[in-house]
TrEMBL record:
Any one GO cellular component localisation term in the record: endoplasmic reticulum membrane
Key word Cell wall biogenesis/degradation present: yes
Protein name: Protein BIG1
Intracellular or extracellular location(s): Endoplasmic reticulum membrane
Annotated membrane topology: Single-pass type I membrane protein
Biological process annotations from GO: (1->6)-beta-D-glucan biosynthetic process; cell wall organization; fungal-type cell wall biogenesis
Spans through the membrane: 270-288
Keywords from the UniProt entry: Cell wall biogenesis/degradation, Endoplasmic reticulum, Membrane, Signal, Transmembrane, Transmembrane helix
Signal peptide: 1-21
Keyword Transmembrane helix (UniProt): yes
Family the entry assigns: Belongs to the BIG1 family.
Primary location: endoplasmic reticulum
Amino acid sequence: MRLFTLRNLAFLGTLISSSLQESVPAVLSSHQLTSGLLKYQEDYDSANVLPQELFLEIAEKFISGSRSDAYLFINIPGLRASDFSDHREQLKTIEKYLETSSTALRFENLEIEQEWEEVFDKLVSYTEEEWDITDRIELWSDHIDAFERYIDWRPRTVRIEFEQAPAGNRAGFFAYCDRTIKHVLGQIPSSDTKIVLTSRTGNTEETESPTRIFSDIFEDPQKKTDIEKNKHTVQKKHELNTPHPRFTGMVDSRLSLVDPAFLKQHGTTIKMIIISSLTYAVAQLILWNRTKGHTRLRQKVAEQKKNQ
């Protein structure tokens, strides 16, 4: 009887601990293709739960799978899976990025442990060590004003830490988050970026059946296969429209003043040029003669006064 009671208590404790298990949503997205990760998405879709240790394994493979020019680690404390649908109008930038990315993974029910709050410390350090990155940007407040634009080629890790999501006016809060992410992505001098978006503080509200994140985007067949959507090579032969210039070019023909066709077309202009030139020459000659006559007269008068 005592053994039965202990078993019941143990089973009840397990139920209580599982029901109070904290979870957070997480999204991984890459502009370029990072192949070999879709199997984790398929396994999660079947189990509907993702342990923290497995997520860290997936995140590290996601980071090391291909080199990017910027790695964004975005923390929105208090973020719930339902926020992606409840405030979709305010999260247009995130929605667009996920839609146009070559690789995107969603985990609505990521079970976290006590050391989860240091997850970005681990992932940022792993990224910098994996790709020998020495430049880091951290935004903890005044995110838009604090971000300093750069134009060099060196890769960077960008860590964005938002305040705790409020209980009320969540739409305004998520609009600010989305506007900040849009600003940062717009200032990075490359579209080749990777994003890890999650919450470093858990909740127990959606552990049972969380709302799926952007179902229409992730149910797209292209999201379920490794397809490179954003890689453009210079060697690719593009099909261009047939040119139709308005000006066909000059005719390669030799012109002559004695050409009959030329004289007929430009005869009046030639006559005006000749008459103008002759008129100018005659006027200059008359002016020169007058000037010369006045000069002689002044010299003669000067000599007469000198002889007196």
